Amino acid sequence: MDLAVEVENLTKRFGDFVAVNEVSFSVAEGEVFGFLGPNGSGKSTTIRILCGLLSPSSGHARVAGLDVWRDAERIRQRIGYMPQFFSLYDDLTVAENIEFYAGLYQVPPALALARQSELAEVLELGPVLDRLARTLSTGWRQRLALATSILHRPPLLFLDEPTSGVDPLTRRLFWEVIGDLAHEGITVFVTTHVMDEAEHCTRLAMMHYGRLIAEGTPEEMRTEHVQTMVEVQAHPIWPVLQALEKAPEVVEVALFGDAVHAELRCDLNDAEARVERKLQTAGVAYERVVAVTPSMEDVFVSLARRWERPTAAGADR
Ligand SMILES: Nc1ncnc2c1ncn2[C@@H]1O[C@H](COP(=O)(O)OP(=O)(O)O)[C@@H](O)[C@H]1O
Ligand SMILES: [Mg+2]
């Protein structure tokens, strides 16, 4: 399979600060590749390098077969890019913004018109086409931003936090549109800090403090990194948290919604019984203890813990 993106030991420094630290990964054509990580983990910096907008400090990266050091200009012609903070022309209407970007991408006018109505349909922009961009809420601005980044049908699309700050309906619509684009053969590289959006991706990479800490399919992520996860429901929940924090077989414990998720250093078989015993011994009331499949957030919390203590990380991994 051809590679849409190949990154090897990519590093970006801003002065003494290392924003992207020796990162290596690849993205095959046709994938929906999710680039996950909390704010500040180096996602946007990586994307800007891949889009030919920022030069790396060291390492290699190829995008659509082109080298980011030498062919930045040609890369920009072959991709679509929706930046995290998209600049729309506030004094133009939605339709005028689309027209403007069509011109920028040199989409012939007749084709641009056809695509505008197609995108208006898909992204449900019809009712706002005549509104000034400055009057749009975040959700609508993001829809317009996505529309302008795919007007020219790039074979490779970079979306930087497209769902950040949007309402749940727009969020769902975006993932549907991303799925449809992938179905048409477009490779999508998408970042998010919402771990559970990872389920929409075919493969993932997880960033933390500029380093790539894990890579794989959503299924691999959930099964390979966390040994055993148990969910405890209780009212109140804090005593459970406190009791489990002290238990030696508990690797990590965190609030998950209004329950507690505890990662254990033991087999799935006796996990529930062990936790129940622990809570009973501590005299803590609970309603239910049940083994669960870790969520992507659980996986991140577990991996991040190992990376935050560099001396322990080597032993853990
Ligand atoms: N131009 C810059 N100069 C200095 N520091 C920067 C610059 N751009 C990003 N950073 C820093 O690099 C880190 C990673 O930023 P970024 O790539 O935007 O992370 P993310 O997109 O994952 O939130 C942050 O600590 C940010 O402050
Ligand atoms: Mg960012």
Would you spell out the secondary-structure blueprint of this structure?
Layout: E1 3-14, E2 17-28, E3 32-36, H1 43-50, E4 58-63, E5 66-67, H2 72-78, E6 79-82, H3 94-104, H4 109-122, H5 138-150, E7 156-160, H6 168-183, E8 187-192, E9 203-208, E10 211-216, H7 218-224, E11 228-233, H8 238-245, E12 250-256, E13 259-264, H9 271-281, E14 288-291, H10 296-308, H11 310-316
Residues 14, 17, 19, 37, 39-45 line the site of adenosine-5'-diphosphate (ADP).
Cα separation of the termini: 30 Å
- The low-confidence runs, each spanning 5 or more residues with pLDDT under 50, are 309-317
Residue share in helix: 25-40%
CATH C-level class of the largest domain: Alpha Beta
The count of DSSP E runs of length 2 or more, i.e. the number of strands, is 14
Helix/strand/pairing category: alpha/beta
Spatial strand order of the main sheet = 6-7-8-3-9-10
CATH architecture of the largest domain: 3-Layer(aba) Sandwich
Question: Which molecules are bound in this entry?
Answer: adenosine-5'-diphosphate, magnesium ion
Strand content: 25-35%
What is the radius of gyration?
22 Å
Number of domains: 2
State the CATH superfamily name of the largest domain: P-loop containing nucleotide triphosphate hydrolases
The major β-sheet equals: 6 strands, mixed
Principal-axes shape call: globular
